[in-house]
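Design job #97: recover the sequence.
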């Protein structure tokens, strides 16, 4: 987690929110995010969950980041079957579904099904960010 959160956060920034297109930043952080996903994929080999083969805080902390991989410039994780199955396993948990839909319906699902809504959301965030930096 010490790597995924910060690296994926930077990837998301450079892919979606940076005021200018910076190829070096996009490449650096999306590739590092994907590399960290491969570490998780290896850790999941022959296991359902990351620690002790039971659902733990390690899964709960990493899951939201990895689930949102496409938003951070990693369009698919088809080459990481353990990770993909892990996401599906956690997605299927009733508590996960309940949490994803409180207080509003699952935004990631909405954005995945309607990419134009995600682009509108990104634009609204950029408007807030860049208006604040102009002050």
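Job complete. Output follows.
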């Amino acid at each position: 987690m010490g790597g995924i959160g910060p690296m994926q956060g930077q990837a998301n920034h450079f892919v979606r929110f940076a005021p200018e297109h910076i190829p070096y930043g996009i490449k650096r952080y999306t590739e590092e995010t994907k590399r960290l996903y491969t570490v998780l994929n290896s850790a999941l080999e022959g296991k359902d969950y990351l620690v002790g083969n039971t659902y733990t805080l390690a899964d709960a902390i990493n899951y939201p980041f990895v689930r949102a991989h496409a938003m951070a410039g990693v369009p698919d994780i088809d080459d990481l079957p353990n990770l993909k199955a892990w996401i599906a396993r956690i997605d299927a948990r009733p508590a996960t579904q309940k949490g994803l839909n409180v207080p509003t319906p699952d935004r990631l699902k909405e954005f995945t099904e309607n990419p134009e809504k995600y682009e509108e959301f990104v634009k609204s965030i950029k408007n807030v960010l860049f208006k604040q930096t102009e002050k």
